[in-house]
Amino acid sequence: MIWSGEPVARARPVRTPEGVFVLDDHELVRTGLQGLLRSAGIDVAGSSGSAREAARRIPALMPALAVLDDQLPDGTGADVCRAVLAIDPRIRCVIITDEYDEAALIGAVMAGAWGCLSKQDDGNETVRLVRRVLGGRTAYSPSFRAMLLESPQAPFPEQELPGLAPQELKVLLLIGRGLAGREIAATTGLAEKTIKNMTSVLLHKLGVSNRTQAALLVTRELDRSAEVHRRLRPGQPEGSTEAVTMVLLDCVAEADGPLSEGSEGAGLVRRLGRALEDARTVHHTSISQHASGGPQA
């Protein structure tokens, strides 16, 4: 059963000093990360492979930090982060993902996490980032910043979108609307793993390196054929995908404290929320007008 994301526990035993709770549904990954932390002299407060179980156990154990897998069978790391913070905002959470995916990065920031780690980083880097959060500072894998700095202004293929299968085109348009992999899976009825694989194939076919660039390419191609931007209602934002990237670059800059409400970085979270809403508005309008052959009267 998929966990709804609601807080499920309120017990408050004594906090484990510098204890870290590990959430990952893959036992090898979970065991490996716990071993890495212990070998670095960092206490492990507990672990789980279930989002629902973690949302119950983390507030009860009160670790200093919870490292949360991005995607689990019964929920997401962002879901768990929100549920934990709703019970005890003193517990620090970071999201860890197996890809340099801006969707995971956005989810981490909006959930109030202290950072976003990558399973592709080596052990020393992972330990460094964990120690940063334990020390009261935000921590993001440097690879996320490198990904974001791959300029979305870089030249895209000038030809029309390559010949795609109908299902691939549908997924690409949903990426253009700013939907995350899990949302696309729910919309299309395909497995999330299938969407992940299909996205990798689409990025290769399009000659781009990440979902942000793919979304921008979709919008540009639709705009070029239908002159959508010229016909948009006055006041609608343009170039909002680039705005999301610029805010994310500010978010991943290593800083003191979280980006959650009440912190100095709370303004970044609000900016990111506005940029995401603008991006979805532009992409949805572009796609709707393209599907209907032009702007609605």
Furnish the topology, listing elements before pairings.
Layout: E1 20-23, H1 27-39, E2 44-48, H2 51-61, E3 65-69, E4 71-72, E5 75-76, H3 77-87, E6 92-97, H4 102-111, E7 115-118, H5 123-134, E8 139-140, H6 142-149, H7 166-176, H8 181-188, H9 192-206, H10 211-226, H11 228-231, H12 240-252, H13 266-292
Parallel strand pairs: 1-2, 1-3, 3-6, 6-7, 7-8
Antiparallel strand pairs: 4-5
Provide an overview of this structure.
- With 297 residues, this protein is an alpha/beta fold.
- The chain has 2 domains: 20-146, Rossmann fold; 150-297, Winged helix-like DNA-binding domain superfamily/Winged helix DNA-binding domain (Arc Repressor Mutant, subunit A), CATH 1.10.10.
- 54% of the residues lie in helices and 10% in strands.
- The chain contains 13 helices and 8 strands.
- The strands form 2 sheets. The protein has a 6-stranded parallel sheet with strand order 2-1-3-6-7-8, sandwiched between helices. The chain has a two-stranded antiparallel ribbon with strand order 4-5.
- α1 (27-39) links the parallel β1 and β2.
- Residues 151-160, 225-240, 283-287 and 289-297 have low confidence and may be disordered.
Helix content: 40-55%
In whole angstroms, the N-to-C terminal distance is: 44 Å
- How do the helices and strands follow one another from N- to C-terminus? EHEHEEEHEHEHEHHHHHHHH
Number of helices: 13
**How many extended strands?**
8
Sheet with the most strands?
6 strands, parallel
pLDDT averaged residue by residue? 77
Radius of gyration: 20 Å
